Amino acid sequence: HAGHMTWKLHQTFVLIGIPGMQEKNSWVAFPLFVLYALTLLGNITILYVIKIDPSLHEPMYFFLCLLACSDLGLSISTMPTMLQVYWFDSGEIPFNACITQMFFLHSFQWAESGILVAMAFDRLIAISEPLRYRLLLPNTVIAKIGIAVFSRAFCVIFPIPFIIKRLPFCRSNVLSHSYCLHPDAMKLACADTRVNVLYGLILVMCTLGLDVVIILVSYVLILKTVLSIASREECLKALNTCVSHICAILIFYVPMIGVSVVHRYGKHLSPIVHMLMANIYVAVPPLLNPVVYSVKTQQIRQRICNILKLRKSRA
User: End-to-end alpha-carbon separation of the chain, Å?
Assistant: First the structure.
């Protein structure tokens, strides 16, 4: 029986909802479900609007399509287990399913970081080379950038399932979130996890760290260009095209940094803070990105309004 018990611990992980208050999980279930429904609706609307309107077939909007795709991927990869934990109070997840979720979750996050870099590059070209903008970013180049971004994400996350699979898990098998994260699972191993820690660190510094540096450099160059524009109106107009992108950057990196800080230094904080941060980290960016772009981008806003008016008049 004891042998069966250890075997069971090895084969599954347990995901948790509200720590210490599992009976209140159902309170989170409905808001979470609504959040996911809105996320799917928002991102699919963005993709649909850009697809049907030829005037939106511009590099900026194609990059926005890539962002919507990675947001959908992120939502779809975390939604099943989060709803399972909060809605059905069932936290058990097979080891391989957990590793698969971990792979997709991290891949889409890394892809999103790469897309934000591409969007910074797009804004820089639009502002510094307005006349050659379409020429410098034809559809073939955008397609290649998209493939490169997703390939990079796939390649850098690819080793993670293998370096986590080689670890034995014999202590607790209870994870601290309602989805599988690499740093979270790694802490439960009863073996040396230095390889995992080191790989995670190198990964963050060489990809996310580099991405942040490139984005900052792009914005320094954008500001330099904008400040050299003579008229104040033109200057503000140019900066206004960057507002949505700046919001998208903050929406993505702030929760990510927040979760890392809470993970590392927040041992004394209430488990509920950890739970909230972890849920914000995966659920909020995919929800807010379409909202920001719909509110801030006039063309998309008008398009959505037109579609709604058409529906109304048909009804």
Answer: 64
pLDDT per position as a tens digit, 266-290: 777 777 777 788 888 888 889 988 8
- What's the CATH fold of domain 38-75+108-166+192-314? Rhopdopsin 7-helix transmembrane proteins (1.20.1070)
- C-alpha–C-alpha distance, residues 203 and 183, integer Å: 13
Tokens for 57, please give them.
Answer: 């077939």
pLDDT band at 9 (very low <50, low <70, confident <90, very high): very low
The string of pLDDT tens digits covering residues 78-115 is: 888 888 888 887 778 888 888 899 999 999 999 999 99
Sequence spans of domains, the chain: 38-75+108-166+192-314
Query: What is the sign of the dihedral through the CA atoms of 154, 112, 101 and 169?
Result: positive
pTM for the predicted model, two decimal places: 0.88
Quick one: tokens of 168? Answer: 């034995």
Extract long-range pairs of 88-93: CB within 8 Å, 24+ residues apart: 89/17, 89/22, 89/25, 89/26, 91/14, 91/15, 91/16, 91/17, 91/178, 92/12, 92/13, 92/14, 92/15, 93/12, 93/13, 93/14, 93/15, 93/180
